[in-house]
Amino acid sequence: MSALIETRALTRQDERRQVLLLQPTDFILNPSDRISITGASGSGKSVFLRALALLDAPTSGQILWNGQPISNAEIPHYRCHISYLSQRPALIEGTVEDNLRFPFSLKTSRKRSFDLKAVTTLLGHAGKAPDFLAKNAADLSGGESQVVSLIRTLQLNPEVLLLDEPTAALDPTSSREVEALIDAWFAGDNARACIWVSHDLDQAQRMSRIHLHMNAGVLSGATQP
């Protein structure tokens, strides 16, 4: 089985300051990989994840998806399969259900439809009852907002999750709800893969089988937790 994502000498430079934020990085993400990346703030963890998500264009090097380079025309399709979740969820006005239906109004997902049963199952994994769908997004706590943001992504069945400290601002209960959702997503298909950037070493141990470390833009240390 070929790698889901591979990088070859991938770099990212801050053009304004002329500083290399990500040193040339060779990396492979295989199906079923659960990888955590830890490191100090400013070490390049988020820079690497955003480059993988093609949210910030790499300065040099290459990203391969299923063994092939990604053309500009393919980037929206790529982002449907390789999903990035940030620390701060961005929700639209309206109810939780409005937010979960929103992706299906976008061009990339118009051929798909909202599945209430699947969403209700996902809510259950996070300890939420079906009536949670009627809550106003403006009234949600930070943890609830992150659960909604994650379910909005998971319902689209991505191949890969790129999780950029999604629980850093959450209380322990909300963090465990997010972790439960990720575990349930993995259980649904063993070909899926995940990279979890975290400051929490205990969480990194719980949520990954491969632990990498980032320091001054250098990714290193494939160890088995």
Automatic annotation (TrEMBL):
Domain ABC transporter per the UniProt entry, residue ranges: 5-225
Molecular function as annotated in GO: ATP binding; ATP hydrolysis activity
Keywords: ATP-binding, Nucleotide-binding, Transport
SUPFAM superfamilies membership: P-loop containing nucleoside triphosphate hydrolases (SSF52540)
Source species of the chain: Pseudomonas nabeulensis
Protein name: ATP-binding cassette domain-containing protein
SMART domains registered for this protein in UniProt: AAA
Pfam families recorded: ABC_tran
Superkingdom field: Bacteria
